[in-house]
Write a structure and sequence with these properties.
The complex is a heterodimer of chains A (181) and B (206).
Chain A (H helix, E strand, L loop, with lengths): L1 H5 L3 H27 L4 E4 L2 E2 L4 E6 L8 E4 L7 E6 L6 E6 L7 E9 L5 E8 L26 H27 L4
Parallel strand pairs in A: 2-8
Antiparallel strand pairs in A: 1-3, 3-6, 4-5, 4-7, 5-6, 7-8
Chain B lengths: L5 H20 L34 E6 L4 E8 L18 E4 L9 E7 L2 E2 L2 E2 L13 E6 L4 E13 L5 H5 L5 E13 L3 E15 L1
Parallel strand pairs in B: 2-3, 4-9
Antiparallel strand pairs in B: 1-2, 1-7, 3-4, 5-6, 7-8, 8-10, 9-10
Classes of the chains: A alpha+beta (181), B mainly beta (206).
């Protein structure tokens, strides 16, 4: 009898389960949302050859904006992210060793203030920079909309027409008065 | 008091009317963007000014050319199907772009920036590019918080049918920048026939 009484009704159980599920769902959603508000580590270039230099920056380390970077996944070891000229942003650099193998590596930075950790991916590829596609030919960067549109010229034209209209009116006025036309 | 003669008034009226009509409707291509003079096209003897040490790669955010009052954000540009560099959207007159798959400005190699000389409503971001002189400064704000400072060493205009791809886009041993806009001859049927190209190289950073 006592055990039966202690047991919550089936409906309440279902409600509690729903609540737990809801909390879990919010938790899951909260992670990417947190990352989206400038919390990730931006890696540039995203794809690099062995021996290349990489710049990383993050807005995820708050006002102090300094962090300890770790690129040991790719064999480059620790590096420092210092506050950059842009407020609330930390920036650091490292060089990918010549011995690095192609693949995707996680670069991590530990914020100096708080216990926040930000991460970003770096792809090491063997494709040489010479393989970079170079544009060719001219660039379509104009339509001719600036032509014949000179505001000074337009103003001069309007003024000249106004003078002509005034002169014409004056002449007509004189003729109407019989002033010798 | 002597009266002004009717003939004088009539003459002024006719002259004013004719010049007004001509100013408003006459003349073709009267308001052409500035084009570089021949002197701006000559690279320094020996060709290679001493460049500042290359910066690590970092995407550009903004370009500033104080002498022609340019200060515009940069967006990433790709290539068209035919391999030409895409232009940024023409609607925004104060917008330029950079070739995203290429070198970042300040890094060793040739970084490429392009922007419109005009759009359907009038002059755009690089309208005065052709008026730029050798020795002028071009600054690029980078995402790493630094500023790459370039010095112009040539301003050229090239016809599209004979475009020197290698000279404009080819790899460089020092950190270089090209700033490109439309220029050259203009006809109403074909538009601008070429490009104004500014050649600059890295001389500092901060």
């Amino acid at each position: 009898m006592r055990r039966t009484a202690a047991r919550p009704p089936a409906g309440a159980m279902a409600g509690a389960a729903l609540a737990v599920a809801a909390v879990a769902a919010v938790g899951v959603l909260a992670v990417p949302a947190h990352g989206a508000e400038g919390g990730s580590l931006e890696v540039y270039p995203y794809s690099v050859e062995p021996g290349g230099r990489v710049t990383v920056n993050t807005k995820g380390c708050g006002e102090k904006a300094a962090a300890a970077g770790d690129a040991s996944a790719v064999g480059a070891g620790p590096f420092t992210l210092a506050p950059s000229a842009r407020k609330g942003e930390a920036v650091g650099q490292f060089r990918v060793p010549e011995s690095a193998q192609p693949g995707t590596y996680e670069i991590v930075a530990q914020c100096a203030a708080g216990d926040r950790e930000v991460k970003g991916d770096l792809v090491v590829t063997l494709m040489a920079a010479q393989g970079q596609v170079q544009p060719r030919g001219s660039v379509k960067t104009g339509v001719g909309g600036a032509l014949g549109n000179d505001p000074v010229r337009t103003a001069a034209g309007v003024t000249a027409l106004a003078v002509a209209a005034a002169g014409g009116t004056w002449l007509l006025h004189r003729r109407a008065r019989g002033d010798g036309i | 008091m002597p009266r002004i003669g009717n003939t004088a008034i009539a003459t002024v009226t006719v002259v004013a009317f004719c010049s007004g009509v001509w100013l408003l409707y006459g003349g073709d291509a009267t308001h052409v963007p500035p084009q570089p003079g021949a002197a701006e096209g000559v690279l320094d003897p020996g060709g290679e000014g001493l460049a500042a040490p290359a910066l690590p790669p970092s995407p550009p955010l903004r370009i500033r050319i104080p002498s022609i009052r340019v200060n515009a954000p940069l967006i990433g540009l790709g290539l068209t199907e035919s391999g030409n560099l895409n232009a940024p959207p023409a609607e925004d007159k104060n917008l330029a772009g950079w070739y995203e798959a290429g070198t970042t400005p300040g890094e060793k190699g040739t970084a490429i920036v392009a922007g419109h000389v005009d759009n359907t409503r009038g002059p755009a971001v690089f309208y005065d590019l052709g008026a730029l002189k050798k020795g002028s400064t071009v600054e690029v704000d980078r995402r790493d918080g630094g500023v790459a400072v370039f010095t112009v060493d040539a301003v050229e205009v090239y016809e599209a049918k004979d475009f020197p791809d290698e000279k404009v886009y080819g790899a460089a041993e020092r950190p270089e920048l090209r700033v490109i806009t439309c220029g050259g001859g203009y006809s109403r049927s074909t538009g601008y026939q070429g490009n104004v190209v500014v050649f600059a190289y890295l001389t500092g950073s901060r």
